[in-house]
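Troubleshooting entry. The earlier prediction with heme C gave an output that would not parse, so I re-checked the input for stray whitespace and re-submitted. Clean input:
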Amino acid sequence: MRGIPATLAVCLAFGLALVPAAAKAADPVAVMADACSGCHGTDGHSIGGMPAFSGKKQDELTKALRDFKSGAKEATVMDRIAKGYSVEQLDAIAAYFASRKK
Ligand code: HEC
């Protein structure tokens, strides 16, 4: 059967191509934080109308995200975004951004 080695080669090629992607995705908090950059920019350095939070301390970020989730802080979109994460995940995201470049 001539087709089998070719199929195997394709599978191996894809398998190898996936390894670096998997290694990059190793930090689950960085992956969650990636979802924020579309609006808030890299490391919270947003440009334009979106609020930048790059200068905020960890406790300020933690409070803001928890308050968005609970509804204590008024929001147009952040309440819905924050509800998509557990409190533990929000705390981890806050710690991540607080540790990034100011
Ligand atoms: C769809 C765009 C969008 C995404 C995605 C988004 N945000 Fe926001 N964010 C906003 C807007 C708009 C506000 C202003 C509050 C509001 O209207 O909801 C805000 C406000 C904030 C604030 C408060 C800033 C301040 O100075 O009061 C924090 C902190 C924040 N976002 C963190 C995050 C984090 C962390 C994520 C990722 C989990 C995220 N945002 C994802 C649009 C976004």
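This one parsed fine. The pocket of heme C is lined by residues 35-36, 38-40, 50-51, 53, 61, 64-65, 75-78, 81, 93 (CB under 6 Å).
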